[in-house]
Amino acid sequence: MPMLRKVLSTHVGQPTSDGAGVRLIRVFGGPGIERFDPFLMLDEFGSVNPDDYIAGFPPHPHRGFETVTYMLEGRMRHEDHMGNVGLLGSGGVQWMTAARGVIHSEMPEQEEGEMRGFQLWLNLPAKAKLGDASYRDIPPADIPRLQTAQGVTVVVIAGEFDDGEVQQTGVVQRPDTEPLYLDLHLPAGASVSPSVPEGHRPLLYVYEGSVTVSGHADSIGAGQLVRLSEQGALSLTSTAGCRVLLIAGKPLNEPIVQYGPFVMNTREEIEQAMRDFHANRLTA
After folding, report:
1. Which residue numbers delimit the Pirin N-terminal domain (predicted)?
2. CA atoms within 13 A on the CB side of 203
């Protein structure tokens, strides 16, 4: 019998608002983020009420990490100081590396209908925190999507999906943190066993239905995140069907100091980021 990954902890997100009043669920982020290294935050947003999202995220700064926005439904326009303009639509991904500094906005391109998706913050190693910023807008047609023999739909955003029968490289590959980002849709009664590199820290977030992790008695329901151990095989089963994000990355094991939109390794670096921002040289 192969060793199975263990459920180390279970977390439930908290309602909050960000930007100019966008209502969302902060799945994790804030105190204790070292447990999720190299990931810093995961937000879930979803509403059919325009009042919950219409104000969007006016121009704001970032330094020291990457943001990954995955849109399930809706349209959001990105603009940044580098001159990039992108329309993030249903099924698309925006991958932005803030590094030394980005000032950008994310504003809804709709006044009605559902706005639903996720934003993940991925840390950068100390050596890359003051590197060049970049932005990539990835339309759904460019994101690999496959179906396993059991009918499980897999959207491969980053890393590589491998269940021993099917292999598919994702649209994004990143050094140092080597992220794996999969959106798994399990029909009723289906199972899937995605490979996760040894030593990577896996997180599982159920956003519809419920799923069972092999070796763990309790099922994981919608709105729950579990942190898994860093060694062993992983097998997921859903009795009634589910949709779940599997996110894994190689821990950086570096100090994390965060102040709002700035994530560095020391307090002095945070203070420098604030000085740079107020002096209009964050992106210089």
Report:
1. 23-122
2. 28
d(CA 202, CA 191): 18
Q: What tokens appear for 226 in the block? A: 């579990």
Q: Which residues of 122-152 are buried (b: 16+ CB within 10 A; e: fewer)?
A: bbbeeebbbeebebebbeeeebeeeebeeeb
- Token pair of 64 as six digits: 């020291």
- Per-block mean pLDDT, blocks of 10 residues, the chain (284 long): 90 95 95 95 97 96 98 97 95 98 96 96 98 97 97 98 97 98 98 97 98 92 97 96 98 97 98 97 94
Any alpha helices (H) in the chain, and if so which ranges?
A: 267-278
> Cβ contacts of residue 261 below 8 Å, gap of 6+?
60, 61, 62, 63
Q: Give one DSSP letter per residue of 139-192, joined into a string.
A: -GGGS-EEE-TT--EEEEEESEEE-SS-EEE-SB--TTT--EEEEEEEPTTEEE
Cβ count within 10 A of residue 78 = 19
CB 5, CB 246: distance < 8 Å: no
